[in-house]
Design brief:
With 146 residues, the chain is of the alpha+beta class. The chain is built from three helices and five strands. Helix 3 links the parallel strand 3 and strand 4. The longest helix has 23 residues. It comes from Paracoccus halophilus. InterPro entries: Endoribo_LPSP/chorism_mut-like, RutC-like_sf. This is Enamine deaminase RidA, house cleaning of reactive enamine intermediates, YjgF/YER057c/UK114 family.
Length: 146
């Protein structure tokens, strides 16, 4: 089964790959690795203040959809992904908020839904006192490719 077929089965339609917001490229291919720049959520706000863990997980999922859109733009097809290697996540949260891993599961779960075992990855889920444009979550990714 192709990844596009899998996305359709899951009822997932990827957004257009977002354009860079500053002086960087959205992705770089080096050898058999695809590095995707940080993708920001569509949700704004701060975890532990005005957003719940569920809101944050939804924000992380939107980052995951943007990561997949960038990967498809870079590769032409998500079928070229051999493995999701690593996700690096930043969660806009208060100093007292400690559920960053639960928030980032919104993206991690998406990768496993889409790629199965190839979607299991290493990751970092850290707090940030602020993120660009006031968004809740930013996530970058590294993918092994064919």
């Amino acid at each position: 089964m192709t990844i596009e077929t899998r996305l359709a089965e899951l009822g997932i339609e990827l957004p257009d790959a977002p354009a860079p917001a500053a002086n960087y490229v959205p992705y770089v291919i080096s050898g058999d690795l695809l590095y995707v720049s940080g993708q920001i959520s569509t949700v704004k706000g701060r975890l532990g203040a005005d957003l719940t863990v569920e809101d944050g997980a939804g924000a992380a999922r939107s980052c995951g959809l943007a990561l997949l859109a960038q990967a498809r733009a870079a590769l032409g097809s998500l079928d070229r992904v051999r493995r999701v290697v690593r996700l690096g996540a930043f969660v806009n949260s208060t100093p007292e908020f400690t559920d960053q891993p639960k928030v980032v599961n919104g993206c991690s779960d998406l990768m496993v839904e889409v790629f199965g075992d190839k979607g299991r990855h290493a990751r970092a889920a850290v707090s940030a006192p602020a993120l660009p444009l006031g968004v809740a979550v930013e996530i970058d990714g590294i993918f092994e490719i064919e």
